[in-house]
Amino acid sequence: MSEFILTIITSIVLAAKPVYIPMNATAYCLTGTTASGMQTKYGVCATGNKKLMGNEAVLYQRLPDGSKGKYIGTFLIADTGCANSVIDVWKPDIDECQEFMEVVYADGCKGQIWVELRKVE
Asked: Which of 2, 20, 29, 88 can bridge 114 by disulfide, Cβ–Cβ 3.0-4.6 Å?
């Protein structure tokens, strides 16, 4: 997704009713300081678009027919370092990363998710 289109979508999403953005999910288990300056911890995720930092990402499975599936979780976007179309969720170890990936690959989703962005007040 181009930076321009993602910027427009971000502006619309953070100002209006819920809009769901199609993205892909991954998980990482590196510990340390995120791009926002906070330590990695449960509930933190990364994306490639720095403009999204400080907002919440509410994740749902994106089923093969394009519909919204199961709720996965709510995460604070506090890190960068992946592609714009990816939400990379922090987990403390490789086993929890694998468990997370099993959820986002369940029901034929193949890592595809819907993301609802919420402004953190």
From this structure: 20
Q: Which domain holds residue 50?
A: 3-118
Is the overall model pTM greater than 0.85, yes or no?
Answer: no
The residue count for the chain = 121
Say how far apart CA 77 and CA 17 lie, in whole Å. 19
Please, which residues have CB within 8 angstroms of residue 6's CB and are 6 or more apart in sequence? 49, 51, 84
Look up the CATH number of the domain holding residue 58.
Answer: 2.40.40.20
**22-77 tens-digit pLDDT:** 999 999 999 999 999 999 999 999 999 888 889 999 999 999 999 999 999 999 99
Residue 117: what are its φ and ψ, rounded to 5°?
A: -90, 135
